[in-house]
Amino acid sequence: xxxxxxxFESGEHAAKKGMFNNMVMLARVDGKVDExxxxxxxxxxxxxSLTAEQIREVIENPDEYPMIPPVTKEDRADRFVxxxxxxxxxxxxxxxxxxxxxxxxxxxxxxxxxxxxxxxEIKNMFSANEKREDILAAVLEKL
Length: 143
Fold this sequence. Notes:
Elements: H1 4-8, H2 11-28, H3 35-47, H4 52-60, H5 73-87, H6 95-107, H7 112-127, H8 132-142
């Protein structure tokens, strides 16, 4: 059923927890969450204004936080950029992670051609330590 706080939280806050849950699931897809992925999860949680208690709650109860997909093109692109950032955080992308990128990309409303066109660019921009805002702007220009 959830906690009292879960029952009364806003839709926006629930969406943020759902998004964070997807990042956690993505980090776990290869069977482990390594240090680089954990650091990125912490950074994402802070960006989403989640408390340590909320982070623990999401990690311990993942089934209670379904993904609430973003509506705007910018929000969908931003979510996709974050997915790719998480997958590449440990510097090693295995086949299950690669297929998950495509699955989430399609779920976010992108077609296979768009995903194949923007994923390598996003990865290269992260490797070059470019700012997320610049990466998002480049992605939006291509979509």
